[in-house]
Amino acid sequence: MVNIYLVRHGKTMFNTIGRAQGWSDTPLTAAGEQGIIELGLGFKEKGIKFDRAYSSDSGRTIQTMGFILANSDNEGIPYTYDKRIREWCFGSFDGGYDGELFDGVLPRIFTETGNHHTDEFPPDEVIANAIFEVDTAGWAEPWEKLSGRIMDGFTDIAKESEAKGAKNIVIVSHGMTIGTFVKLAHPELPRPHGLDNGSVTHLSFEDGKFTIGKVGDMSYREIGSEKLAKK
């Protein structure tokens, strides 16, 4: 069985000012770096040794992984980038304000297409296809492509780790991508929303199946924060 520690990257400039990051990228802020240092120290304090590391190929996840490995005494382990576990692409809305996209454009599209949703969070499929329809750059992915690459990416990572005999692996990905993956892996579970930067979602993989544990766990960061406060 492979134990998976799935981390949302540290807080970035765009996260801080409420912009949709997607495939665009900004670096971690000083506070974002601090949060991931706390996470790494929390892993170290709990004695967690990783056999392999994976992240998307976005700068913010690579930067996050560097802080995790350095502060948890896990440097030097095999580390692979996988572009399939990138964030959703918002196309021409990448870099735009979250409110403009999620509170302005998308509700209008739902109304125009007859997809009326009173829920605070419509299904991912509806959101993805709406973004695809209004993206003037032609970069956004329809739901079938988006969901396929996310599920394939995480599944292949888990299978590779299992084949290599890994017991514990760490993956750094993105908020919406992690939420989508959890829902795809276990459709009966609620779709996670609002995952904190530096949070950990626990999973295991065995016999081709994912099991979801605690989602959005902040305990490692809390342990690391306490550790720093004592210095």
UniProtKB/TrEMBL annotation:
EC code(s) of this entry:
5.4.2.11, 5.4.2.12
| Top-tier EC class | isomerase
Q: Does the keyword Isomerase apply?
A: yes
* Residues binding substrate: R8, H9, G10, K11, T12, M13, F14, N15, R60
> Cross-referenced Pfam families, in alphabetical order?
His_Phos_1
- Print the keywords alphabetically: Isomerase
The terms under GO molecular function for this entry are:
phosphatase activity; phosphoglycerate mutase activity
Q: Catalytic center at which residues? A: H9 (tele-phosphohistidine intermediate), E87 (proton donor/acceptor)
Keyword flag Nucleotide-binding:
no
Q: Identify one Gene Ontology CC term for this UniProt entry.
A: cytoplasm
Q: What is this protein called?
A: Phosphoglycerate mutase
Question: Which organism does this sequence originate in?
Answer: Lactococcus lactis
Gene that produces this protein: gpmA_1
